[in-house]
Amino acid sequence: MLSDFLSPIDVEQLFDGETFAKSQLRNIISIYENDFPELEGIKIAIIGVQEEAGARNNEGTKHAPDHVRKALYRLYRPDYAISIADLGNIKAGNTYQDTLYAIKSVCGKLLYNQVIPIIIGGSHDLTYGQFLAYEEINETVNVTTVDEQINIKENEEKPSSDNFLLDMFLHEPNYLFNFSQIGHQSYFVDPETLHALEKLHFDCYRVGMLNHNIEEVEAIIRDSDVVSFDVSAIKASEAPGHARLTPNGFDGEQACRIARYAGISDKTSSFGIYEINPLFDDKGLTSVLAAQMIWYFVDGYYNRVNDIPQMDKSSFIKYMVDLEEHGLTFWKSQKSDRWWMEVPFNIAKEKFKRHHLVSCSYSDYETAMQGDVPDRWIKAYDKLS
User: What span, in angstroms and rounded, lies between the C-alpha atoms of 92 and 95?
Assistant: First the structure.
């Protein structure tokens, strides 16, 4: 049972008698206080993880879940009905592997029941547990992390929030199709790491590429099953709740937009926010921002338009661009004005069929019209051929 892995929330202790309006989330979310919530009809479930064994110089993240809840429950619901449960906290296991198993089990059960888990960590390496939940669904998946660095460092002790991506890349059986990294800052990343990811046809987008065109993130995340957000990707002035602060990064509004892009993606089925450290969080600002990111994810989810072209192309406009080496086919949704590219795939790789329509933006179509093949198309083609 799910409740075997989860402990209830003491809401009275969190708020010490504070009263709430009926439309504040405290009175809207089904909360595991005494009895475990019924999951029938629930669309999104919040899970806290009180584990920080993998934290590197950021001990204190295990206290984050309840601090985020205090900010989240005070927010008002959107102007429509929502169905969310807060399932309480996964406590640190006797071993780190026990904690990963608990995350995998809880998230896997929710995914099976078509409930989207929102995970409040804990350290960023817990993304690996989030990823492991997909092991039983028998499909290859796409993962996107938002971080100021790329968590691949040699000679790191395990568990480590600085090196968990290697575990994901090397996991057997291999069910990772694509990995995208958003928001890294070049001076924090070994160039050899970028070269290695390029050889794997993975995608890396530094923060400077996106700061003035944050809309491009939507196409990156739209294909992602797993989205994981390390708050260190946000500039310290807007998210000080982290031991390794940096003056640069995304601002709070951009972080909320990224969360909404994850929510509105028809493919995204789990979302995690990690590395919040209340011990460094001046006036709880980072917890408040994380709560608002969750609010925007929920808003995105309830505004999904279900326009995946694999399902039905009748509401799409088809555009064909003849280039010297390849003929490119683009699809534009008449519901949302979003774009996709069609990429041929080797019939021997049938398991990759769900990835042959690649999310893109209008700028990719413009690139093709100028006679160049978009980078997104090339990387997908290399993996599918």
Answer: 8
